[in-house]
Structure formats: structure tokens, C-alpha cells
Write a structure and sequence with these properties.
Order of helices and strands: EEHEEEHEHHEHEHEHEEEEEE
Strand content: 15-25%
Shape: elongated
CATH architecture: Alpha-Beta Barrel
Largest sheet: 6 strands, antiparallel
Structural class: alpha/beta
Number of helices: 7
Number of domains: 1
Helix content: 25-40%
Number of strands: 15
Amino acid sequence: MKDPNGETVSHTFGANESAPDHGNMDFVDFYFDYFMEVPASVAGGRWQGTYTERSWNLRFLDNYVVYAPEAWSSSPVNPLTDSPVTREEREQHVLNAARRLRERADAEAGGLRYMVNVWSDVESGYFDRDIYPELMQYVDYALFEAWTSNGEGAPVSESVWLRRVMAAQDMIVNRRAEPVVQVGFGDFWYALSSLLLVSENGKGMIWSNDMYSDTILSSLNALDLGSPLDDFTYVDNAYQREWGKGKVIVNPGDSITVSIALDRNYEDVVSGDISSSITLPPRTGKILLAR
């Protein structure tokens, strides 16, 4: 897209990335056709064959900004009106593009899935703007590139944490999209326990830039909580959820340490300690197995 001066609008977090014109269906179709048949001009013709022939079935729509003026180098113009693009226009264009990609994927590329990096949009306005829940009906995976922390690894406030958790829960329960949450920033177990407050029916994945340690992989391989028994609740100043073989408790509070008496003995998955009570410092979570 271009701004009023005719300059290309780029992403402030990636100067080599331009803001695409989602309202141009020729552009959207070109993007999809790129999957079905790679143009000879790509990579100097070094790419031989198609994505389908190479058995690729996932496309990653990175930095998929719906409406975030702070992420653009300048204000884009709507090519259809020659006026500054409004939020409503931008959202409709994005929805039209996502719907078109979904329809063509289902009709022409069976099994093709889309992962969309939308965490900044989703966590800030998921329940305030109709576009976000509807967009989650057209994509398969929604990446929260920041989850329990920001991009630098510092834990977010309880209000931001809860907004993200509620958005992920809505995806799991009501939408096509499956939340994929970043566990590579901050404390791993805090991030995982926060996801387990809402994950169910096989939906909810973790993602990290770095490979997990052997210790974490061994713990994950042995972890068996059974199935969730109900939605999470807020009890004893913490968020808790009962599972068939244990429970998950998270304290996303900014400063308060909580102590909780449990109904029986539980084993802490991380430490291996068995106890009928736990203490949770701020911004921590525990995964407990019934014993």
C-alpha cells in the first residue's frame, strides 16, 4: 500500500516488509496461486516444483497486522477511494482476503492450513471488534508470539494476561483457529500452565524459537493430566482448573504471593514435591498431579 505521498507503507518492526493491499483480490489470488505453482521468477528460478509436490501443507502469514497504525511507517491510502484508509475499510479488506484464501484452500488445496501471527491485534481488542473472532474462523492456527510475557521476556500485567487467556479460550471453544502460544519468553511452566487453563479437545499448542531442554521434554513426555473437567475459575486469589488426574493453578498477580490448601496430596510436576498445600509467588503457575 502507498501513503498520500506515493511512498510504500512498511512495517516499523520490519522495514523490508510492506503493508499489503488486502482489498485487491488480484493480489490475494496471486498469493494463493504462489502456493499451487511457484513462479519461475522466485529465487532466480532455483525453486523446482510446487509447494504441493513438496508436501507442504501450511502457510505462515507472519506479521499479519489487521489494524495497528503504530506498526506502519506512514498512513496508507485506500486505492479504491484515494482517501486515507479507515479502520472499518481495513478490517473489511482483511476479512475478505482471509475468506478468499480459506475458500480457495478448501476447494483447490485440500489440507492446506494457515498459521497467522496476530497476537498484538488479538490480545488488544479481540472482544471489542467483530473482525477478530470472525477472522479466527478462516485460519487454522493463531500465533500469540507473546503470551505470558512481552517480547523481551518480562511478564505482562494480570489484566493483559487475562485478556490473552480469554481470547485463547474463545478460539478453543468457539472458533476454527487453534491458539499457538509462545513459551520461549519468560518462565516456561508459567506459560504452559496458563495455556492449560483453557486447552481442551486437543486444541492448544506451544511454540518456541529455541529447542526445549531435555529436562522439559522428558517432563512433557511423562505428563498426563487426563481431560479437563470444567472451565477455569478464580478461587483463593488464583486461577484454577480441575483435570481428571490433577489440577492447574496460576497466579498472574503483579505483587501478591498466594498460599492455597489443597483437597488432597498433589505432586508438583516440576519439583516432584508432594504436598497438600502450595505457595505461588506472583506471575507463576503450577501443574499438579493427584497422588
